[in-house]
Amino acid sequence: MFSFFNSVPSVTTSELEEKINKNAVLLDVRTPREFRSGHIRGAKNVPLSEVGNYDPKDKKVYVICQSGMRSKRAAKMLKNNDADVVNVRGGMSAWTGRTVQGK
């Protein structure tokens, strides 16, 4: 049953840098245009409108957007589908690490 009241764990962008590894997926739920303008290397672009169709295949999923609002919504959707998910607070606006452009 879908509920917005299921709490989703979250991390800061600096905690994300420490935690991201090969057993996790970084899902960027911004639009393709936002994603192309600059994203974290290795991130997978799945816009918020398509998150319901995303299957994390038993991997931990960190979800990021521009400010943290869309990623929080996406994380709740994924959690309701039994995904092991963590929201990234502050989003790309708070990210101070390197980014790459393009697809």
TrEMBL record:
CDD domains: RHOD. Residues 20-100 form the Rhodanese domain. InterPro entries: GlpE_sulfurtransferase (IPR050229), Rhodanese-like_dom (IPR001763), Rhodanese-like_dom_sf (IPR036873). This is Rhodanese-like domain-containing protein.
